[in-house]
Input
Amino acid sequence: MNQGLSNQGLSIRGLVKEYVPGQPVLRGINLEIAAQGITAVIGPSGTGKSTLIRCINRLVEPTAGQVSLNGQEITALRGTALRLARRRIGMVFQEYNLVERLSVMENLLCGRLGYVPVWRAWLRRYPASDIARAFDLLEAVGLPDHAMRRADALSGGQRQRVGIARALMQAPELLLADEPTSSLDPKTAVEVLELLARLTGAAGVPVIINIHNVDLAKRFAQRIIGMAGGAVVFDGPPEALEASHLRQIYGGEDWL
Amino acid sequence: MSPALAREWRRFTPAQRLGRWGVWLAMVAACAWAARSIDIIPEFLADAPEQMMDLLVRMWPPNLAHYYPTVHGALVETLHIATLGTILSFGLALPVALLAARNVCRNRALNTLAQLVLVASRSVNSLVWALIFVAVFGPGPAAGTFAIAFRSVGFVGKLLAEAMEEAAPGPLEALRATGAPWASVMLKALWPQVQPAFWGVALFRWDINVRESAVLGLVGAGGIGVVLDDAINFFHWDRVATVLLAVLAVVVVAEVVVTRIRARLL
Output
């Protein structure tokens, strides 16, 4: 209902990041991303895709510019306020980043740590509603019998399913996915992306996904953002992405 | 120059050879200097085997009747000192280790301060710590327990901090991204990764502390060292033998038990 309002969704203005002063990795990014659908960010390695996504939840501190989510300016937050804002943003990682020695169930419950007091987490006395939600999500990602298994006993595809479930445990308003399929085989990659698209579509969560594979990006995203040299060089629907754009994004043409 | 000569190969360059020769020279010089400074008296060196034989003869047979209750009670006290001292040292070392680990505490000054505390703890021998705590608490096992704890802090803290720094950063980043408070991130992302090292260090240090606490009695800090000291002072060499055998037995048993448990942890 609120999708028409300008303060809904993610708004990035003049985002600059310099790890080394004078050498910007991101050169003034401006993006408006609607509060629904999948947006894929494509571009060569080292062009700042990961940095862009990490500037949104401030795992990386932007050098300049503003990021706002649903009207709240995240770049202005500090301390507890930043922590509370991060609860609203789920994240999925290339290397899954599960806690290997914990069970699948506890990895899912880690998604609720922003809401659960420390003493409850310590004594493992999570609210019953969180545990029920975790079982529901385990079923949704197709791992209903794996709750008690340790995360390091799972295959790559299973781990990423747990990673997606953990992010959705937060009931996020935005999901960030940093190369979620780069460590997976082609078949598993498609399965994981299908799952991600289905679950976030059902929950109405917008997704920003960094991805190397242009075909997968075109297949699953409603919008594609092409980056090169720390700037946006293409922004449009998958149908509009042509060979000339890919040449501009990745350079050269022998590979096309 | 012929091609055959150009293909000649040597393991070290001339500069490296000179350097290696210099290191050897320095080592020999250090040994010679050390031997001169410890003042070996030739007559004493000559009759050392005789003296050793004499001591062994006086020790044999060990006075095993002396074991219970005197040696036994002191031995149990030694184990208590080692165990309580180890637990206490972990309580002290954990916060220092958190401050020393550079991936946990981002403040360089605090890292350095914590490292300094750990080095200071290790630089003081447990006998010296015992002397200090005997002065504070008076003679007895309390002084021994604190001596063991304060000596262990440096060892335990250093190894825990290293285990923390070796933890994979991915899970920590993931939990920070969920908006979890710092304590929850440490509890759920760091602790599971550090846990095996934690128990390994705890057992290893307890094993060391059983041996260390056996000598603390020499300075009056309780345990079996008190009995040993008394026996030596009264020239009861058969009792000395009993004490030494008892310590040997306990150390061997501790070693076996700890090795087995550690093997299961990894």
